[in-house]
From TrEMBL:
Biological source species: Penicillium canariense
Protein name: Nephrocystin 3-like N-terminal domain-containing protein
Chain positions of ANK repeats: 866-898, 899-931, 932-964, 965-997, 1001-1030, 1031-1063
Species lineage: Eukaryota, Fungi, Dikarya, Ascomycota, Pezizomycotina
Alphabetical list of SUPFAM superfamilies matching this protein: Ankyrin repeat (SSF48403), P-loop containing nucleoside triphosphate hydrolases (SSF52540), Purine and uridine phosphorylases (SSF53167)
Keyword set includes Transmembrane: no
Length: 1096
């Protein structure tokens, strides 16, 4: 084999993780080369290389170190490649991955097909996912996006796509190169249609090397292709370090990260923002529990063949004009200095935006801008001047009064007036002031509590006032890098520190003031609105309407709006005048008039909509509402998609003036439309017992119909029935994800029907419906169970592959005591695959449901399931009364097993002080070992529950007890940044340098979290600054990787060895450079760090 004169002649980098992927790439070379003349591998480069030519391009193929895979190893391979071969201009990451097949959506991905990352929207074609931290609720998180590939690759990609549309691909031709492979063509050739089986997401693998024992009836029907040639699919690839082992986890992940992905893999995310490239994957499995290695070699070959074909569309001349990857990345320190004047502003802006996104995610604050936007739409220009010009407002505006309390009767226009105030302030203050707003919203449970108010105001303040960010960052830093969310108290304290003490004032909205605004609004709607255009030629009629409305409005904006809606439908003067004479004088009379006016043919639909909007917890989307009214309880079938309204936006016509459509928007998500009650007064009226009395006596029967239908028990029964009927009519052959997309009401029905049923379970027809669903509609039950268990709020009751849980379990979990009793009478067997009815009822916290299994002879200490036993389940949920009942009935307080190992650890971790006291009084062993956190003290310390830590210590807890995720309570508290807990532990003998656990030691845990005060505390108490161990090797490497400049300075001042080796990233400088923390890198270099790598 020949050798090229210089390694600079190689311009294409090709990375493959596995030996079989590298072998397939080598087989695609048109010419193999020896190592180039004079090539000296960089001292930090441990890659293995193969050299050669594909078409007109010289290609170097690099693979990950043997036995390693994942994002970090890929990043190391890429950085090492560029350190030794700085002239590389474009790069490909080629290998195998798991295809996300959705045949019913037109995404018919098969094994052996090729998936290519294609930039979509804000992504570079690949996004990074990861599982939440070890302490979190294990939700999937979207971490970032891949940078866009070089333009020359994008041009080639577009050209190749066009050619594939016009003719055949050359991939089959290139696949003949597989004959060169040592294993021969058998394994590198197509493996046969009979071995390509796509199973339903709900069906887990039944064991064994292949799917011999898996049921054929559980496969998805797909038409056989005319050819065995692989097809090419373009879209977003998901990449991360966490192995996705089953379809349930896969579907849940995509639901939570909110992206349409076509492939899963485990290397590309390590190259994000560090190695711009294109990702090519051959599909070797479907990212589910049925994966095996049969298709891996063939998939490696198809991906390599596509990579070769793609390179044939890259012009040599254009490639030579393309900047090198190093130039693109500006990875060398000197290069950073050279380009900093050009890129600094953009980089800072991007980093600031990322930081703000992190703050928004961490705060989880509700977005009230939608409420403001809706109010601004309703506002009539010129209204509100009476208030803006009032002495009270002007005193508040100039600072004499710093707080105003604006109050008035329902429907008088407080919300719209608030929008006028905000508009005024924005015009007057421009950028010189900070305006914060929050709208409490009766239709949205995320906008109804003090906690949500504080979170929203903190988020707005952080975004709109740079001067306050330092103080907020101090509070945020104490929480953000741990799993815990900030408490309302801590955020309130921080918020109050930023605001002055205020004087209180009050403004009352009086009818006389508001009537001016009402008149202006009515005048504008009559003369310029489309609804009254028919009367424009008769100004006296318009004056007559305006007078009639103003005589009855009496300061109620809401009443005036409804009156206009009521009058606009009249087409002639006699009927208009008759309606004017009968205009209601109160909102309740107005609402009764609207209800009575609903066409009898549509009355059932209107009642159903109002039942859901009045009593459902989450808001209804317009698509959900459309399916709700499409259900015919007495029909055959009950539901059919063809029954849906052709124009969903007309759904408001069932209940005019009582409901409204609101468009919602959210970052990283398409906007959607919700159907809501039009005003809080509507909900109050519908829940009241005054519906009949507000009706005209002649229509009292209609009023009684609405009154009875909107009774809580009756409405809950109807909602339960509608949900179960809907679930029973679905195409159960489809996966959970498919059902959620094709049947919009599916998710609501699955998640919430039991909550409604609990209210009305005593009604015989409801109980009969529940039993029918549980015992007779088997396929519907299984489809529902899959959706219900994907709800993050539901305890993870089983692992993939378990047999399905019986109805008794879920009935007990939901506290459906009458259903539980009937099922117990029928089934008799209390044991439910390791999860018994007693444990389920304990998880649900329903004392009455817990008592039922006892009456049927349940063993209070029966073992198994997620929580191990009933007492631990109740302890985890904080259900004190249930715990007392279990203990009175002989529950073993120290029984072990399940997620938390024992009840005391569960209660301690969850922060249930009263329950911890109860357990200790009943003989709980304070030092019992086991479970995720080792012992109760470590669990309480990991969440910062100071009162519980003190309680455990007073009852004999060992400060240095070893075991669990963090090995010691001190490391657990350090990882969360809980200074007060740490002070208590240190005062009582905690060993500051004890080694073990996830972070190796307490100092490294604090450094990884960026908890400067905690680090100072540990160092003052004798922490060894250079102690080794843990994920990051040492504290300096942890702080450098996270980009905590202040902490790096602290460690260096306290004697940290800047060149100490170890850990996942080698040393501090490599860790900082991997994440692009330039400031930290410069600090390390000034303190003697050896620049052992040229790549940042």
């Amino acid at each position: 084999m020949k050798s090229l004169e210089s390694s600079d002649m190689y311009t294409v980098g090709w990375i493959s993780a596995l030996p079989i992927e590298r072998a397939a790439a080598i087989a695609m070379l048109d010419e193999r080369h020896d190592k180039p003349c004079g090539f000296v591998q960089h001292q930090a480069d441990s890659n293995s290389y193969s050299w050669g030519r594909m078409g007109e391009h010289n290609v170097v193929i690099a693979s990950l170190p043997a036995g390693l895979y994942g994002t970090t190893s890929a990043a190391t391979t890429a950085s090492s490649l560029l350190s030794s071969l700085p002239n590389i201009r474009i790069s490909l990451l080629v290998g195998i991955g798991g295809g996300i097949a959705r045949p019913e959506q037109g995404r018919d991905i098969r094994l052996g097909d090729i998936v290519v990352s294609e930039p979509r929207g804000t992504t570079g074609g690949l996004l990074q996912y990861d599982l939440g931290k070890a302490l979190s609720n294990q939700r999937w998180e979207r971490k970032g996006f891949l940078s866009l590939p070089p333009r020359v690759l994008l041009h080639a990609l577009a050209s190749l796509q066009a050619e594939h549309e016009l003719g055949e691909s050359r991939v089959p031709e290139f696949l003949t190169a597989a004959e060169k492979l040592k294993k021969g063509a058998n394994w590198y050739s197509y493996q046969g249609f009979e071995h390509d089986r796509l199973f339903r997401s709900s069906y887990g693998h039944k064991g064994g090397h292949d799917c011999h024992d898996c049921e054929e009836m559980q496969t998805v029907d797909r038409a056989e292709r005319e050819t065995t040639d692989p097809e090419v699919h373009y879209g977003i690839i998901a990449s991360g370090n966490t192995l996705v082992k089953d379809a349930i986890s896969r579907d849940r992940m995509f639901e939570e990260i909110g992206e349409e992905c076509i492939c899963l893999e485990m290397e590309a995310a390590g190259l994000m923002n560090h190695f711009p490239c294109l990702v090519i994957r051959g599909v070797s499995d479907y990212a589910d529990s049925h994966k095996n290695d049969r298709w891996q070699r063939y998939a490696s070959a198809t991906a390599a063949a596509y990579g070769k074909e793609l390179l044939s569309y890259v012009p040599t001349a254009e490639l030579q004009e393309t900047r090198t990857a190093l130039e693109v990345l500006s990875s060398d320190i000197q290069q950073i200095h050279a380009i900093v004047s050009v890129t600094k502003t953009a980089v800072e802006s991007l980093e600031s935006n990322r930081h703000l996104d992190q703050i928004r995610t961490w705060l989880s604050a509700p977005d009230t801008s939608t409420n403001l936007n809706e109010a601004q739409k309703k506002r009539q220009a010129g209204t509100g001047l009476w208030f803006l010009e009032s002495a009270s407002f002007q005193e508040w505006y100039v600072g004499t009064r710093q707080t105003l309390w604006l109050y008035g009767i329902p429907g008088c226009g407080k919300t719209v007036l608030s929008a006028s105030i905000i508009d005024y302030l924005n015009q007057q203050l421009h950028s010189t002031g900070v305006i914060l707003e929050f709208f409490f919203d009766f239709t949205d449970t995320k906008k109804q509590t003090l906690d949500q108010l504080v979170r929203s105001l903190i988020g707005q303040l952080y975004l709109r006032s740079k001067d306050t960010r330092k103080e907020l960052d101090r509070v945020i830093k104490a929480y953000k890098n741990s799993d815990r969310q900030p408490t309302c108290e801590s955020l309130s304290t921080a918020f109050q520190q930023l605001l002055s003490h205020v004087q209180k004032g009050m403004v009352s909205i009086r009818p006389g003031s508001v009537n001016t605004d009402i008149r202006l609004y009515v005048h504008e709607q009559l003369r310029n609105g489309r609804d009254f255009a028919r009367w424009c030629s008769k100004p006296t009629v318009l004056d007559e309407i305006e007078t009639g409305i103003m005589q009855r409005a009496d300061g109620m904006f809401r009443l005036a709006v409804c009156q206009l809606d009521n009058l606009q439908k009249h087409l002639d003067l006699p009927r208009l005048r008759k309606s004017l004479q009968l205009l209601p004088r109160t909102l309740e009379e107005m609402y009764a008039r609207i209800l009575n006016g609903i066409d009898e043919d549509y009355r059932d639909c209107a009642i159903r909509i109002l039942q859901f909007l009045t009593y459902s917890e989450p808001p209804l989307t317009i698509e959900e509402a459309v399916d709700i009214v499409a259900i015919d309880p007495s029909g055959h079938p009950v539901f059919d998609p063809t029954f849906r309204m052709p124009d969903p936006r007309e759904i408001g016509k069932f209940c005019p003036s009582l409901v409204t459509l609101v468009v919602r928007e959210q970052r990283y998500r398409k906007s959607w439309t919700e159907l809501q009650l039009a005003h809080l007064s509507v909900q109050q009226y519908l829940k009241s017992d005054r519906i009949v009395s507000s009706f005209d006596p002649k229509s009292s029967d209609v009023g009684m119909l609405f009154q009875n239908s909107l009774n809580l028990t009756v409405a809950s029964g109807d909602i339960t029935t509608v949900c179960l009927q809907y679930l029973s009519q679905l195409d159960t052959r489809k996966s959970t994800g498919e059902l959620a997309k094709e049947y919009p009401f599916f998710v609501y029905s699955a998640r919430y029907w039991m909550g409604h049923a609990k209210i009305c379970e005593t009604e015989k027809h409801v109980l009969d419906r529940i039993l029918k669903f549980f015992l007779e509609q088997v396929e519907a039950y299984e489809a529902w169970e899959q959706a219900f268990c994907l709800d993050p709020s539901v305890p993870p009751v089983f692992e993939p592959g378990y047999e399905k849980m019986p109805p008794l379990y879920y009935a007990a979990l939901a506290g459906l005591q009458h259903t539980v009793q009937l099922l117990l009478n029928r089934e008799g067997d209390l044991k439910v695959h390791g999860e018994d009815a007693l444990q389920a009822a304990s998880m649900g916290g329903c004392t009455e449901a817990v008592q039922l299994p006892f009456r049927n002879g349940a063993d209070v200490n029966i073992q198994g399931g997620h929580f191990g036993n009933a007492l631990q389940a109740a302890s985890a949920g904080g259900y004190t009364e249930v715990m007392q009942l279990l203990l009175r009935n002989g529950a073993d307080v120290n029984i072990q097993g399940g997620e938390f190992d024992n009840a005391l650890q569960a209660a301690s971790l969850r922060g249930h002080t009263e329950d911890v006291q109860l357990l200790l009084r009943n003989g709980a062993d304070v030092n019992i070992q086991g479970g995720h956190f080792g012992n109760a003290l470590q669990g309480a310390s990991s969440r910062g529950h100071l009162e519980i830590v003190q309680l455990l210590f007073r009852n004999g807890a060992d400060m240095n007890k070893r075991g669990g995720l963090f090995d010691t309570a001190l490391q657990a508290a350090s990882a969360g940044g809980y200074t007060e807990v740490m002070q208590l532990l240190l005062r009582n003998g905690a060993d500051v340098n004890i080694q073990g656990g996830y972070f190796g030691n307490a100092l490294q845990a604090a450094s990884a979290g960026g908890y400067t005060e905690v680090m100072q505390l540990l160092l003052r108490n004798g922490a060894d600054v250079n102690i080794q161990g843990g994920e990051f090797g040492n504290a300096l490497q942890a702080a450098s990787l996270r980009g905590h400049t202040e902490d790096v300075q602290l460690l260096l001042r306290n004697g940290a060895d800047v060149n100490i080796q170890g850990g996942e990233f080698g040393n501090a400088l490599q860790a900082a450079s991997l994440r692009g923390h330039t400031e930290v890198m410069q600090l390390l270099l000034r303190n003697g760090a050896k620049n052992t790598r040229s790549l940042v």
